[in-house]
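Newbie here. two chains, one complex. Structure please?
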Amino acid sequence: DIQMTQSPSTLSASVGDRVTFTCRASQSIRSWLAWYQQKPGKAPKLLIYEASNLESGVPSRFSGSGSGTEFTLTISSLQPDDSATYYCQQYDSSSPTFGQGTKVEIK
Amino acid sequence: EVQLVESGGGLVQPGGSLRLSCAASGFTFSDYSMNWVRQAPGKGLEWVSYISSGSSTIYYADSVKGRFTISRDNAKNSLYLQMNSLRAEDTAVYFCARDSGRVGYNYNYWGQGTLVTVSS
């Protein structure tokens, strides 16, 4: 299986900050990467697909980039509602795998 | 409005069986591939199984292969997961998730999840 590694595990930032976190794949996944946001007790929500495409209805402060093995999710101006855990997911193979998550805390 | 509602979770002993259901509404169920994704308490997400819109293609994670069976009934707008030979490590919230319909396996609608606890 393709392993996905996210960093950092936890990120603490202030409202208005620009925050970026990383997802690395154990082998090339081209651009077949999605990002999800999950709040406690809730289902994940799709934010980004195909590495850089914003899902409908998702605020434009979220953006994704990367290809191959290294990807980033950026929040251009952190909002209180962005406190959540963010997961990347590769879907280059028929056995999709998720990263372990980055928890974003608001200072 | 798209809705996915899981049911069938509960407490089961190791070695036991359980059948999860996911009732879909608000979209043409037979047009979309579906998945089960699970999350152990306090842990990350793990994809479990995939079924294509017409049930012709099915995939499983290695961790459940041979023990779990995914199926669907397009006439009833329902997705199922038959879980046999359950182990403690199968304890998790199980989500059904709809493929986005775009190329590849990403999920733009999820249910609220149903908790499966495997314990004696």
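Moderator note: The interface with chain B takes residues 1, 32, 34, 36, 38, 42-46, 49-50, 55, 87, 89, 91-92, 94-101 of chain A (CB under 8 Å). The first strand of chain A starts at residue 4 and ends at 7. Thread marked as resolved.
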